[in-house]
Every structure is written in structure tokens, then in C-alpha cells.
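Hi everyone, sorry if this is the wrong subforum. Our group has a chain we'd like a structural model of before ordering constructs, and none of us has done structure prediction before. Sequence below.
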Amino acid sequence: MAAISEKSSEKITVRRVRLERNSERAAWLFMRLSGVAMLVLAVGHMVIQHVLNSSTNLTLQFVAVQWSSWGWKAYDILLLWMAIPHGIRGLFNILSDYVHNPGVRRLIGVLLTLFVLATVIWATIAMILFDPASVPF
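Answer:
Right subforum, don't worry. Here is the predicted structure as C-alpha cells:
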């Protein structure tokens, strides 16, 4: 076993790494963070909807009762905001493996981004404006 002396003549090189901030890095980080968040949100959703409640009880009236509380609406909206972009980003990653033309890849990315924005905005508005009182019991 070699001993390390305190008076070493070797110099230690310290390099400062500058991380670039680009969209790919942000997307990579989003996929990791949304995946962890969805573990909690999606498993919680499945337990609440299918374990604690009977699957035969999942009706519009059941949803209306849940969405009469802003807590449930916020929970479902947060799940929506995580799941849709996460899934579409996964689709983009798969398509990027097969599409090698940078222009086509960029076009696909733009179209999928517009789809995500439209879907998330439309669904969020629908969930916020949902009126449980209008559902007949």
C-alpha cells in the first residue's frame, strides 16, 4: 500500500465546467422530475379511484362530487400537467431515434409542442370551468 505524502510535488488541476442551458437539458430534467411526481400522483390516483372506491362507482356523478372541491381539481390538473408533456416528450424521444433529418425532427418537435400546449390549456380550462351543480343526480 502506497503512502501519500503531504508535500507532494504534483499539481492538482481544477477545471470549472460550465453547463449550457438549452432546451434538451431542460427537457431531460423535466422528464426525471415529472416521472418522480407522477409516481406519487398516478399511484395515488389509482389507489383512490380503484382501490378505495369501487370501479363500478366511477360515474360522472362521482367525478362531480370530487371536483366540487378545489383540492381534487388541483390534484387532477397537476397530474394532467405532468402526464401529457411527459408522455409526448417520450414520444418525441422515440421518434428522434428514427428521424435523422434535423429539419424534420425540429418540425416534429414544434408540432408536438403545439399539441401539448393546446391539449393542456384546453383540458385545464375544462376542469376549472366544470360545474358540479349542472350534473343531474
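For your construct planning: Helices lie at 23-51, 60-66, 70-98, 102-129. Residues 24-132 form a domain with the 3 helical TM bundles of succinate and fumarate reductases fold (CATH 1.20.1300).
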